[in-house]
Design a protein that fits this description.
alpha/beta; single chain; elongated
Length: 182
């Protein structure tokens, strides 16, 4: 891509009004777990904008002795939590329309997408055996339209990926404690 094309693409994105937010499960701020978590695993490369940091923060707060492991498979002893992030991408039609709306027409045509995000799956293992799975949905909502430009500040005060994964992990801790799995 030439410098001219990059400048035009950047100007189109900056001049169009983009409002985005992330929806996630409601979560308590504090959870007291019954069983200590020894290790947990989550892929660092699965998240776009700080999702890993949100999960790590929730573990530091709720299970401070748990260690992050690079090992995907559970160990044969202790309590292990494996977190998998299944990415949900935008449909091909949505991508094409979104790129055309923003880049070709400078946001003159409205574009909305609420299908992207993650399905987070938390798997609890006790002594190497799967005890229970929990699944949660995080969705990113995006609205792009030139007349929305004055309202694009809303994106700065809505939850981001780090807040969404932290809240989802806290919801997981609350659910697992309520089921007496943790």
């Amino acid at each position: 891509m030439s410098t001219c094309h990059a400048f035009i693409a950047g100007a189109a994105v900056l001049m169009s009004g983009c409002i985005s937010s992330i929806s996630h499960p409601d979560a308590p701020n504090q959870v007291a777990i019954e069983h200590e978590v020894d290790t947990y695993y989550t892929s660092r490369g699965s998240y776009s904008f700080g999702g890993f940091d949100g999960i790590a923060e929730a573990f530091r707060k709720t299970a401070p002795h748990a260690e992050l492991s690079d090992q995907y498979d559970p160990p044969s002893h202790g309590t292990f939590v494996r977190i998998r992030a299944n990415s949900r991408d935008m449909s091909l039609g949505g991508k094409v329309y979104g790129y055309l709306s923003v880049l070709a027409f400078l946001g003159a045509f409205p574009f909305y997408n609420g299908d992207t995000g993650y399905d987070l799956v938390y798997e609890i293992f006790h002594e190497g055996r799967l005890a229970k799975k929990y699944a949660y949905t995080i969705r990113r909502h995006m609205f792009v339209w030139l007349p929305a430009l004055p309202f694009s500040w809303i994106s700065a005060v809505t939850p981001g990926e780090a807040e969404a994964t932290r809240a989802t992990t806290m919801r997981f801790f609350a659910d697992a404690t309520g089921d007496h799995t943790l």
